[in-house]
Each structure stands twice: as structure tokens, then as C-alpha cells.
Amino acid sequence: MAEHPDDLRPGVLFDVDGTLLDTNYLHVLAWWQAFRDTGHPDVTMSAVHRAIGIPSAALVQHLLGTDDEDAVDAHSARYEPLRDQVVAFPRAGDLLRACADRGATVVLATSGAAGDLDWMLPAIGERDAVEGATTSADVDEGKPAPDLLSTAVRDHRLDPARCVVVGDTVWDVESARRADLPCVGLTCGGIGEAELREAGAVAVYADPADLLARLDESPLGRL
């Protein structure tokens, strides 16, 4: 029997790295080191930064034009000691709680591994506000493909007509566009407002605190 739209729920799909957690530049450093560790010294930090948000293997393919599992492993090794320095952006947990309190189903949609949630959720805070998460383990293809978001919508019984994505990269915006979902961009990950809007973001804010301060007038507040 077909599911009636009334059975579906409004939701907000949050990217994590660079959106809720201030991790992007730590990842840039770890990847920059990893590429040098594995014989690719010509890859610049700028190039790495613009690729952040793509799953690891695809990021390597994007930057090198070929696969290199050693580079992926080297990134993991380089990033591990940096995790102790990860902090949430100001008011990130409060933003999740505010969305949940307004009746939205809060889902994390991250290209990271399922095991990353073990440290990501405590770092963000307000764990109880999060209904669930969709990770790279749940899909065959990561961002900018729509799979991560489409799977999150399906698995958490969300109404696509009342669902908004929040992310910080053009890859998040493209993934949302391909999933037929509006995307709100945040510039705290290091990508500027003009580029996020050009990619298709329906609104852009500085960071979680800025979005929270203007939540009622934002696309999230209109769910």
C-alpha cells in the first residue's frame, strides 16, 4: 500500500564536517600531509580545501585523477591525532535542539564512516535532538551524488516537500539539488556565500549561531 504523505514527517538533514563541527581545515592539513606521505607533493592545500566534502576515495580520485588507497589510509592516520582538537561551531547543538523542538526530525547526513558518529555526536552535543544518521556505510556513492540524502529521507520517513538540507560545501548543495531538496548553506566551512548561492543554495548564513538567530525567518522555520 502506498504511503500517504500525512504519514511522513518534516525534517532537516545536517551535514556534519564544516557545518556543525569545525573540522574542515584539520582535514585539509591531514590530507596535505597524507599526499606528501604517499608521493604527491604537488597537491596544494587550496585544492584540498575545495574538495572537502567528497568521500575519501572519491576525493583522492578527484585530485589525482587516479585511485590511491595508501593516500586514504595516510589521511586517516594523520587525522586521528587531530580529532582531539575538534570543537563544534558555537550554538551548533542549540540549533539541532531548536529544530527538534519545532517539530522537525533532525538527521545527520555525513560522508564519514558510521564509526565517526561515536565521537562526532558528543562533540556536537544535544544528542537527544538527533533522530538518526545516514553515513557512507548506507550508500554506494557519496556526495555530490544524491544517494546519502535520498536514503536519509526514505529511512527516516521524511516528507521531501517539507525537508531542508544544511551544508557548507558546493558538494552539499549539488547533492541536495540532485535529490530535489532545498539546501541552506553555511560559510563557516570556508566556502563563500557567492559560490554557495551559485551552486544553488536557497539561503546562506555565517554559521549555526547565525542560522539559529534567524531560524524563524529561514527555510527551516517555514517547514
TrEMBL record:
The keyword Transcription regulation does not apply. It comes from the Bacteria. Keywords: Hydrolase. Signal peptide: none annotated. One of its GO terms (molecular function) is hydrolase activity. InterPro entries: HAD-like_hydrolase_sf (IPR050155), HAD-SF_hydro_IA (IPR006439). This is HAD family hydrolase. It comes from Pseudonocardia oceani. The lineage of its organism: Bacteria, Bacillati, Actinomycetota, Actinomycetes, Pseudonocardiales.
